[in-house]
Amino acid sequence: MRFLATILLSMCFLFSCKTKEFTPATYEKEQIKFGNGGGFTGAYNSYYLLSNGQLFLREGRKGKYRELPAIKKKEAQILIEKIQNLQLAEQKLDAPGNLYKFLELSDSTQLNKATWGRADTPVTPEIENLYLELMELIKAHHPTDENNNPSM
């Protein structure tokens, strides 16, 4: 009887241990926010990659965060290093057009971002390539149709 009680107590303790899950709104460590928007409707999609590997989609400004399949923490760290190397704060790229793209790196204390889309304001190939790499990550983790194109 005592053995059974010990096993049941151990199982309860084991199942009560759960990894803490975050949302972009509650996460205080580094995260990348990227996406696109504009056009006639002004709609946009934001994707969030947290440094722990969690990946989210948020449609519009008031949409709820929808968790996508996570990536490995090490992969997330590599992408964060890449965006850090872009030095977005020094580039001061804030040139949205009718259709625009954005890339941000933030933590609990600072926000560095780039927004581009105007034809008269070119973006560096490094920024554009990282943006495309992140969007390919989304396509791999968020297939929405037979062509594997996420809603953008």
Number of domains: 1
Structural class: alpha+beta
Instruction: State which percent range the strand residues make up.
Output: 25-35%
CATH top level class name? Alpha Beta
Write down the overall geometry: globular
- What's the SSE pattern? HEEEEHHEEEH
Low-confidence stretches: 12-19, 145-152
Q: For the CA atoms, what is the radius of gyration? A: 19 Å
From the coordinates shown, what is the CATH architecture? 2-Layer Sandwich
| Major sheet: arrangement of strands | 4-3-2-1-6-7-5
Main sheet properties: 7 strands, mixed
The count of helical stretches stands at 4
Reported by name, the CATH topology is: Mago nashi protein
Total beta strands: 7
Helix content: 25-40%
What's the pLDDT, averaged over the residues?
Answer: 83
Give the tags:
152 residues; alpha+beta; Mago nashi protein; 7-stranded mixed sheet; 7 strands; disordered C terminus
Describe this structure in words.
With 152 residues, the protein is of the alpha+beta class. The protein has a single domain (21-141), classed as Mago nashi protein (2-Layer Sandwich). The chain has helices spanning 2-16, 73-86, 88-91, 125-141; strands at residues 31-38, 44-50, 55-59, 65-68, 94-95, 99-106, 111-116. Strand 3 and strand 4 form a beta hairpin. The protein is globular.
